[in-house]
């Protein structure tokens, strides 16, 4: 893996590893250094078992959001990080609650449905029940809202700040049953890091 080269003003955060972007994958090599500037962000090879990879991803997510409370900026960067770091995804993004329904926020993937009523679809169900929804087969989920016909499985984590609904983090995959309990735990931890950052 060639060393990360950043253009412009470079900020470096040492976390005990290095990340670099390769085609379709984010690679992680400990010890991690995250390089990013106004024009470039690089990450490197995730290693270890799934739990260790999620620990590294959580560390990078925290570093990305460190010192930043803006919910849109952090949602945008977190969407990009997850989209590039995790294999077999076609959509990663946020829906925010506007006091009435869910409205699409920062995301990676194809253009998506803009508004989702509470209780509707996988996202609205996660928000209304305050429970993560891990769906192996979206076609078998009553009321699933198909924004991207490629989606086959989905993981939605509800976001609550100080007991109030903020929105949801939604991740879609073209692969059936893409997400297992380890994925759910890893993404929930990253969602909590997002909530901590913007609190
Ligand atoms: N499938 C979601 C809608 C959002 S998209 O997947 C981006 C749902 O059923 O709520």
What would you say this structure looks like, in words?
The protein has 2 domains: 11-65, no CATH class; 72-198, Beta-Lactamase. Helix content is 29%, strand content 34%. It is built from 4 helices and 9 strands; from the N terminus they run βββααβββαβββα. The strands form 2 sheets. The protein has a 6-stranded antiparallel β-sheet with strand order 6-5-4-9-8-7, sandwiched between helices. The radius of gyration is 16 Å and the shape is globular. The structure holds methionine sulfoxide. Methionine sulfoxide binds next to α3 and β9.
Determine the CATH topology of the largest domain.
Beta-Lactamase
User: How big is the Rg?
Assistant: 16 Å
Largest sheet, if any? 6 strands, antiparallel
| DSSP summary, beta strand count | 9
Write the layout of secondary structure elements.
Elements: E1 11-22, E2 25-36, E3 41-42, H1 50-65, H2 71-85, E4 91-97, E5 101-109, E6 115-117, H3 121-129, E7 133-135, E8 153-161, E9 164-173, H4 181-198
Antiparallel strand pairs: 1-2, 2-3, 4-5, 4-9, 5-6, 7-8, 8-9
Helix pairs in contact: 1-2, 1-4
Bound molecules: methionine sulfoxide.
Keywords:
6-stranded antiparallel sheet; Beta-Lactamase; 3-stranded antiparallel sheet; 4 helices; 199 residues; alpha+beta; binds methionine sulfoxide; 2 domains; disordered N terminus
Q: What's a quick, concise take on this entry?
A:
The protein is an alpha+beta fold and 199 residues long. The protein has helices at 50-65, 71-85, 121-129, 181-198, and strands spanning 11-22, 25-36, 41-42, 91-97, 101-109, 115-117, 133-135, 153-161, 164-173.
């Amino acid at each position: 893996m060639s060393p990360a080269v950043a253009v412009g003003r470079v900020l470096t955060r040492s976390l005990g590893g290095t990340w670099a972007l390769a085609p379709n994958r984010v690679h992680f090599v400990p010890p991690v250094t995250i390089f990013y500037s106004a024009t470039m962000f690089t990450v490197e090879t995730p290693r270890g078992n799934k739990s260790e990879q999620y620990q590294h991803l959580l560390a990078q997510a925290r570093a990305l959001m460190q010192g930043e409370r803006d919910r849109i900026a952090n949602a945008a960067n977190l969407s990009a990080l997850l989209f590039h770091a995790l294999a077999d995804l076609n959509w990663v993004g946020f829906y925010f609650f506007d006091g009435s329904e869910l409205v699409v926020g920062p995301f990676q993937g194809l253009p998506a449905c803009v508004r989702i009523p509470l209780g509707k679809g996988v996202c609205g169900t996660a928000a209304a029940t305050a429970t993560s929804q891990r769906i192996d087969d979206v076609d078998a989920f009553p009321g699933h809202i198909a924004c991207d016909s490629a989606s086959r499985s989905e993981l939605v984590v509800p976001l609550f700040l100080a007991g109030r609904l903020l929105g949801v983090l939604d991740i879609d995959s073209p692969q059936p049953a893409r997400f297992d309990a380890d994925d759910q735990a890893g993404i929930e931890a990253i969602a909590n890091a997002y909530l901590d950052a913007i609190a």
